[in-house]
């Protein structure tokens, strides 16, 4: 469908549904069609001219249903937008269409003991505002939790803060079910329990419209946020690793930043020297007493220390210096930087981290996040900063990591299978075939859809026939 | 000091402290001098004729202080007794003396957010009765939690239920501090923070009199207790292992029992066949939904299912079939059995479990507990049941395990270093030298004390000079 055809389809839809909350001014639509893919110079260039034809912010499921019906009738693409904090252009429409701002769907539907069900457009921090008084908080969330939506985390995210305990969001037990609207002439509403629900996870909204997500929660602790500094990188690594690996030291977040990364933290860097390496930890109050000894043992010094309550009141959480916020703080200071996403081997990540840091020197700067993998192993991921020269060199760097048995989750690609997913998954494509038979949801992102004729597809991947 | 000398010393002490709560009738003293070391036919024989000369149950710290003073003056051994649920003769006096029943010290001293401080003689279950309404429970406890005392767990225990999350009790962060009385002519009271506090852990009360223990707590969940059965042992193993290794499946306890162990559970065995293998799991309510799929995948069936509240009300928790309760249930049915304590390798415990089960056939019956080790790795320990023939064959079996890279924590020895500790630790001996310079506490248990002249001892192992 070319631009002219889309324009006339859009006109017909607007005519049929004039009461929807439309945004059509091109600059505003373009702005809303962006996320944080500009962290990648490669994606920045590739997605520069991509945008929606219009934006709609539904006020109700009924409005969304009418819009879906209309888009199916006129074969216009539909792309979901949450908090727009993605890093891979998850929401950037590749072939125009209507961008649906989901942030009107922002209610907590049900709060149980250790379980919450909320609408996809709610901000993650707003979920915790409801759950925390009951003693619960999110099991894993990105550093963008103040802006990021639940649906965005589910549709395009991975995990983050809390993954040191619960692994990635996709690990069994973290997501319990989703409620989905199909992209059909007569849209259906489906309740999909885990594990099938996970077939819609990290699919960028390309195989169903997630309306609600039911999450298992973590018990809340009184957290202390700390930034500790070290003159020696290996000392900092070993301090963080000792904390990560001690099952009796309760934590929510643990990250290591090689110099000069801490110097990019402009609100904090008065507390230490630019040559120092840092560890940010969020640890339970009852575990903090052990820091003194552990710090002394690894020749570290306390630089910043605050309670999570203080941090929240001041909108100054150290969690907002971790995961991809690190990249953001760095790019604000030095826009020539970009980043990697690497997964070290759980069996020898310590040595790999040291080796890779030594191998690249100043060109690749270690930012290491500690987490559990899907099998419960404690391991480390890198969101290394890269002094960017060319796309060719960037690919070369990634190849060198792979050659050293460090997995690359390439953040410089916009197709789902080229990133974390790693390969075409026929089950994920089967879901799209069932819920979006015309291929209208976020077209161009799911490579498997383009080659669906070569795949063996399941007619009922969500086991709906069993319900 | 021979029996006659002890008798006259005892007479002098009784004369000086007539108001203490004395037990002196030999049969009663003998009964109080027993624990569950009879699980081991070796220890049963070795400790058969060992007992205290008298038992005292102090009503106050002042009474205990007077008793300590008197014992030091007359050089009479003093041995601490908690719930008497130990398995290695921890409390059995090797050289007579006064057995101190600590169960009068049974108060919770302070409950904070995630922290409790309680007296050594309190039963573990009674601590939870206080902490649970505040949303907290014990991080790790033996299956004997209804009888076992806090001081007993600290002085002679390891961990157990909850160790799948927090590792052994001795892992950093689980114990925060202890309050200790010294065994001196003028007894001192010391507050010893972790990590130094751990030098008194698992020392059988041989290097200090622990009066109070401060523990970090775990947030309470609504737990579900399940017993699921499998026709195939590997299916049962893989089910348990999948549960153990999934970071998003929240659990407190996970154990695997090869047939015919489940048939020894006489209150449960109507729910399954004697040929079936069982997995007992204690899982969070919010995680239970995933069992159906996981069970089906591993060809398992639900046999028993109850909430922890129901179990508590009925005094019928499935936790009391795990850890060394398994051994107890088995020995009740077949007194010719005994047991092992093995630590599999975290890197290949699944294969080791299968191999060792195949190697010994019916002679060694797999009872496997899943837990985290001190470095946060998920791994497995065995409390295998043994069809006992001779001590020689028992030692041969243990050697075969060692030859297959499975560590043995020998439960058939009464000296501290021969069991879990594995070697003489000069720091532990240094503590005894400082707090019990006359070697009166539980004499004969700490091998390192006998050879103290050959060790380099620290004059201040608890860093008291820094306080």
TrEMBL record, chains A, B:
It holds the Pfam family FAD_binding_4. Keywords: FAD, Flavoprotein. Residues 48-220 form the FAD-binding PCMH-type domain. It comes from the Bacteria. The keyword Membrane does not apply. PANTHER family: D-2-HYDROXYGLUTARATE DEHYDROGENASE, D-LACTATE DEHYDROGENASE. This is FAD-binding protein. It comes from Rouxiella silvae.
């Amino acid at each position: 469908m070319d631009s002219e055809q889309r324009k006339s389809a859009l006109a017909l839809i607007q005519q049929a549904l004039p009461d929807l909350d439309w945004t059509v001014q091109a600059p505003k639509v373009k702005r809303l069609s962006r996320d944080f893919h500009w962290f990648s110079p490669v994606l920045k260039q590739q997605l520069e001219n991509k945008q929606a034809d219009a934006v709609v912010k539904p006020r109700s499921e009924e409005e969304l249903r009418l819009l879906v019906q209309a888009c199916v009738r006129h074969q216009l693409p539909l792309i979901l937008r949450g908090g727009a904090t993605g890093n891979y252009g998850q929401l950037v429409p590749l072939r125009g269409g209507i961008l649906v701002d989901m942030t009107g769907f922002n209610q907590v539907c049900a709060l149980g003991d250790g379980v919450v069900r909320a609408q996809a457009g709610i901000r993650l921090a707003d979920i915790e505002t409801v759950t925390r008084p009951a003693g619960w908080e999110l099991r894993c969330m990105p550093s963008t939790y103040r802006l990021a939506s639940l649906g965005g985390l589910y549709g395009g995210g991975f995990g983050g803060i809390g993954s040191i305990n619960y692994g990635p969001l996709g690990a069994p037990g973290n997501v319990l079910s989703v409620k989905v609207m199909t992209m059909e002439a007569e849209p259906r509403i489906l309740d999909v329990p885990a594990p099938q629900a996970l077939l819609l996870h990290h699919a960028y909204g390309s195989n169903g419209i997630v309306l609600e997500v039911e999450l298992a929660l973590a018990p809340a602790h009184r957290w202390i946020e700390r930034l500790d500094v070290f003159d020696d990188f290996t000392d900092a690594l070993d301090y963080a690793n000792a904390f990560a690996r001690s099952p009796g030291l309760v934590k929510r977040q643990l990250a290591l930043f090689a110099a000069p990364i801490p110097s990019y933290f402009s609100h904090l860097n008065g507390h230490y020297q630019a040559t120092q390496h840092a560890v940010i930890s969020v640890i339970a109050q009852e575990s903090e007493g052990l820091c003194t000894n552990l710090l002394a043992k690894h020749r570290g010094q306390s630089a910043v220390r605050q309670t999570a309550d203080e941090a929240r009141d001041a909108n100054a959480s150290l969690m907002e210096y971790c995961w991809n916020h690190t990249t953001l703080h760095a790019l604000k200071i030095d826009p020539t930087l970009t980043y990697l996403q690497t997964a070290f081997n759980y069996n020898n990540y310590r040595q790999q981290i040291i080796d890779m840091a030594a191998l690249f020197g100043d060109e690749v700067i270690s930012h290491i996040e500690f987490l559990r993998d899907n099998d419960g192993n404690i391991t480390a991921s890198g969101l290394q900063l890269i002094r960017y020269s060319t796309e060719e060199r960037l690919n070369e760097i990634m190849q060198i990591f792979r050659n050293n048995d460090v997995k690359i989750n390439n953040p410089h690609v916009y197709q789902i299978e080229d990133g974390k997913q790693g390969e075409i998954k026929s089950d994920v494509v089967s879901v799209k075939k069932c819920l979006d038979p015309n291929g209208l949801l976020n077209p161009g992102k799911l490579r498997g859809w383009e080659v669906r004729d070569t795949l063996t597809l399941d007619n009922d991947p969500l086991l709906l026939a069993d319900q």
